[in-house]
């Protein structure tokens, strides 16, 4: 599978709504919530007016187009995204620390693309002089292992979630 990782362009920000929905962890046997759930204020902090703050950073994973698709711009070649912003979200640990969000369309999970996106973002944050970053993840989410593998550590937890930090 051939893909590239690149910075998102401003005309693509709307795709973050799709990836915000994809980032919602749905345990096995539980029905997915309606897509409108992303309009809840506690979720909108991740995407509302994205790109308007200097700390808004996003990379996307994009499939290489098939031979017959070359020459056309296909918005749906984007298969995953990782983005950060400084916000008061579930993973907020302190002012000035960017919080992570990441997701891939289901059929592209478990292939190493998420890890590549995470590493790209961690390198970008280091280049920009950030000293740490954080995220929240449900304990049952298979992505916990990936976060640990790229350098995040569990610093707190509640009944359902881990709060994780990566020192850069």
From TrEMBL:
Q: Name one GO molecular function term.
A: acyltransferase activity, transferring groups other than amino-acyl groups
**Coiled coil (residue ranges):** none
Q: Which PROSITE patterns match?
A: GNAT
Q: What is the lineage of its organism?
A: Bacteria, Bacillati, Bacillota, Clostridia, Lachnospirales
Alphabetized, the UniProt keywords read:
Transferase
InterPro entries to which the protein is assigned, alphabetical: Acyl_CoA_acyltransferase, GNAT_dom
Q: Which domain of life is it from?
A: Bacteria
Question: Could you tell me which residue ranges the N-acetyltransferase domain spans?
Answer: 3-168
* Descriptive protein name: GNAT family N-acetyltransferase
